[in-house]
Specification:
Elements (H helix, E strand, L loop, with lengths): L1 H19 L1 H10 L5 H15 L3 H4 L4 H20 L14 H19 L2
Helix pairs in contact: 1-2, 1-3, 1-6, 3-5, 5-6
């Protein structure tokens, strides 16, 4: 279980880091140009949301980190609704006010998770 938790923790934080950084999003798109980055990151966020109901996932975070993750997931749901009909890919996604706000909020979540150690 420890390896699963370590990998999941790494992947969760990495997903948040991608969302929070314009440079990381652009680099990610350059590495996998055939992937719609916005859809991919929301799918990864869906997986984080699914895992929040599992005890082994919850136990690997402090209470403050888990609270920050829940804030991220609320923002994730809002952005899903906003892009229900159509989500542009990188680079156009980086010009969308809703996505830019999501990036800022995700960056705040990362800071809160780091300070909640």
């Amino acid at each position: 279980m420890q390896t699963l938790q370590e990998n999941t923790r790494f992947n969760t934080i990495r997903t948040l880091q991608y969302i929070a950084s314009k440079e990381e999003l652009i680099r990610y798109k350059a590495e996998v140009p055939f992937v719609h980055i916005g859809h991919e990151l929301l799918a990864q966020s869906d997986e984080i949301e699914r895992l929040t109901d599992t005890p082994w996932f919850r136990e690997m975070w402090t209470a403050g980190q888990l609270e920050a993750l829940m804030c991220f997931l609320r923002s994730h749901q809002e952005i899903r609704i906003e892009f229900k009909e159509h989500m542009p890919d990188i680079p156009a996604l980086l010009e969308h006010a809703g996505w830019l706000d999501f990036m800022i909020r995700t960056n705040d979540v990362l800071r809160r998770m780091d300070s909640a150690l």
